[in-house]
Amino acid sequence: MTVQSKITHHHVCPATYGYAFEARKGQMFRLTDLEGQQPIDFWGFCKADANEHLSVCHTRVWNLSMVVRPGQVAVTNKRRPIVTMIEDNSPGQHDMLLAACDPTRFETLGHKGHHRNCQDNMHEALAALGVKLPFSPQPWNLFTHFPWTSDMRIELQSPDTKPGDNIVFRAEMDAIFAISACPQDITRICGDKNTPVQVEVFG
Ligand SMILES: [Zn+2]
């Protein structure tokens, strides 16, 4: 663990809920899968203008990679670095291809009525900080396991993460970050149950 600074902000995000927090340029933060097998959908927004946001497709081009590894950055839709991945204390499976779960996803999976979902969690979490967005960027799906097969199909598997697996990021601009402890409970992408996740921001 390279972070030497004190924790200045700590939050445990309940299972199936979202949370948003601010980080200044240069500040580090750690996202932890507390109980294991819990995906965290992750978004980042420029504090000065939330229309500029972490973009997984721009990030794939930036790194010429399907994933981000420690030392690499994620960039915005204006191709500016927004976070660097400092440490990845997990199996390193963080999908950058699939959309967040949303009401229609649950409807098409056969669920009747309202179901908590990552897309609404992101908007709820941002609203708590006074940010209203007319769009929903694609998330970075941390702690997921969506391997693609030799014939390019995508499989939705349960994560390999263990309790306490975590990622440390450094903000590369003054930013607002949002997370969702994914509420998916119809497919197996959250293993057997939905569990809480933790945010720690360092000084
Ligand atoms: Zn989800």
Task: Spell the H/E element sequence.
Answer: EEEEEHEEHHEEEE
Spatial strand arrangement across the major sheet: 1-11-3-9-7-6
For the termini, the CA-CA separation is: 15 Å
**Total strands:** 11
Count of separate structural domains? 1
Helix content: 10-25%
Bound molecules: zinc ion
Q: What class do helices, strands and sheet pairing give?
A: mainly beta
Low-confidence stretches: none
Summarize the main sheet. Answer: 6 strands, antiparallel
Overall pLDDT metric? 97
Shape call: globular
Total number of helices: 3
Please give the radius of gyration in angstroms. Answer: 16 Å
Strand content: 25-35%
Explain what the structure shows.
With 203 residues, the protein is mostly beta strands. The chain has one domain (7-202). Helices cover 12% and strands 33% of the residues. The strands form 2 sheets. The chain has a 6-stranded antiparallel sheet with strand order 1-11-3-9-7-6. The longest helix is centred in the middle third of the chain and has 11 residues, at 118-128. It binds zinc ion. Residues 41, 100-101, 117-118, 182-184 line the site of zinc ion.
